[in-house]
Amino acid sequence: MSEFFKAELKDRFLEYALERSDYFQIYTLYDEFLRPNYSLEYVQKLVREILAYDSTLLDVMGGNGLDMFMLASTSSTEDFLEEGGFMNLYVKEEEKWDTFLGQLSGMPKLTKEEKKQIKKATPDLKREKLMLMGLISAVAVSFLFTLISIFNETLLKPEYVPADEFERRMEQLREQYILENQKLQLDLKEAQHVLDSLQK
Asked: Beta-carbon neighbour count of residue 86 at 10 Å?
């Protein structure tokens, strides 16, 4: 599951907790959001990630042989969601990477003398280019496998997914595809920039 979907799910867990005025079983989150494609352990993992980020976002009680049996919202839950929640954190992290990549591409150009020194220091230029092309290919293959995995989960098991849930997931797929496409375009631009600088 991508970081985008995980961030959205964590926010949905917190929103659900906020809507309820009582304690509820962690199993309820599994029934509401992840049955049958994921396990109860995955819900527990996401709740642990929420608590690892900020232990005041949920009130947790153990019981029935589980360390996380009952959950409830806290006074911090609403404030955190009003600030944008985990989706906001995800967007900020993506923006930081975009800024970083932008700074890399905006680095000052080398003088002819500096380029000569770099060529002397890297006698095996073809090997560098080959490694760079391998990296670009790996990113493309990884993206392709991610898409195949997502389509496999959503399209090949339609009997488990209600129609409105399917439409919501398809919308999420479109959004994730746009985000990953933009990221891949940035990676390719950066790789092209590196190739151009190596050829000069």
From this structure: 24
Please state which architecture CATH assigns to domain 3-79.
Orthogonal Bundle (1.10)
Q: What is the pTM of this model?
A: 0.47
Q: For 51, how many CA atoms within 13 A lie in the half-sphere containing its CB?
A: 15
Helix residue ranges, H only, 20-67: 26-29, 40-53
Say yes or no to pLDDT of 17 above 60.
Answer: yes
Spatial CB neighbours of 132, under 8 Å, sequence gap ≥ 6: 191, 194, 195, 198
**DSSP string across 75-140:** HHHHHHHHTTHHHHHHHHHHHHHHHHHHHHHTSPPPPHHHHHHHHHH---HHHHHHHHHHHHHHHH
The backbone torsions φ and ψ at residue 66, rounded to the nearest 5 degrees and listed phi first, read -115, 145
**Structure-token pair, residue 67:** 């360390």
Enumerate the domain spans of the chain: 3-79, 108-199
- Of the pLDDT bands very low, low, confident and very high (cuts 50, 70, 90), residue 154 is low
71 has which bridge partners? 24, 60
- Angstrom distance (rounded) from CA 61 to CA 166: 33
